[in-house]
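[Solved] Which block belongs to which protein?

Original post:
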Amino acid sequence: MTKEQAKNNNSDQTQRAHDYLLTLAKITTKFAEVERAPRYPDGHRENDAEHSFHLSLSAIELAADFYPNLDVGLVAQFCTVHDLPEVYAGDVRSFKITDEQRKQKELSELAATKRLIKELPPYTVELLKRYEKQTEPEARFVRFIDKLLPAIINITAGSVYNLKEDYNISSAEELNRLKEEHYQYIEAMFPEFKAVQLVCRLVWKTESKDEFNQK
């Protein structure tokens, strides 16, 4: 390769980097505008960017503590991309939804993923594809911990009104029944992470106790 060819290659790479940085900035801006159900102590709804940062901190700590065989760097990367399809699909609450609603959520997110694959730079595309396949233990771990975090936000925010207004839940008894159904479903999806399932159970118990003042 001549010096001139090397110079042209470097120029092409520089231009590509410039272009994909702008693309990522646009995606990130849209991502931060996607509202989720959980509310913060000040009353504003959590957005996807806040959630993904929270998930990254939580998942890598739990992985390092309970499953040191997992690649925590890969866990953090999967946390970054795990909800990117919501840029176009939006956040659809998975608690207290029907099988038909769950199926529609999956189809919508699949369409959004296909759209993103055409827009994102190559490394991010491959990372998103790997996460969506759910074949690597790190990807499955991230998806499992993702299911835990709404309860954490509810505890820190003390947002019982979130359950009352968004889900029309009016008692601890009703909440416990719905959660048991929901969490049995989640635990059946991720049987390989039994140690963290115990942590999740404790968190869910704390959430119910705090929100409806159970003793």
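(Second protein starts here: sequence line, then its structure tokens.)
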Amino acid sequence: MIGDASPLAQPQLWDRVFVAGVPSPGKATISRAGQPFKWDEKDGPGTQGANLTYRGQRNSHFQIKLSFREEDHFAEWDDWQTLLAYDSTKKTVKAVDVYHPSLADRGIKSMVVENIGGIEKVAPTRWEVVIDCIKFSPPKKSPTTTPGSSTANGTHATESAAGTPATDAQDAQQQEIAKLLAIAQQP
């Protein structure tokens, strides 16, 4: 949820992305951050329509674009990009914590980097780098459900306990984790 962090109320929050609590250099723009869902769609033979089965969420693929206009931005980039790089000699690669209001609105709190682009000149006094990222969320057991008809069709869906969403205890745990991450990221 964006809440008090709207781009109109707090535009400075929208100009940076924080990775491991460290603000990005230059001006940051987030694109394609979403919340994709997995659905199985099965057509019936000789019928119109299809049966849909919910299979959980997919990881969001998104981009961070950084725009550099000042000499300091390049020096800051040299240090900041080390937060994104992976050492291929290490056996385990870890995700990094990330914060931007747009990402937080989609539930993205942790990411892995798929690609770090090169710095490209896009205007006489502006350079950009694009970072391709993937939301990190380890798999959780989640029951699959087939939705019932909508009330517009005159019927109401009834689901078994196997199709119910996460428990209140799991939601409370996720909220507590989010609070602790927010506290840890404060300077």
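Accepted answer:
You had them paired correctly. Confirming on the second one: The beta strands are 18-19, 22-23, 27-31, 37-43, 50-57, 61-68, 96-99, 110-116, 120-123, 126-135.
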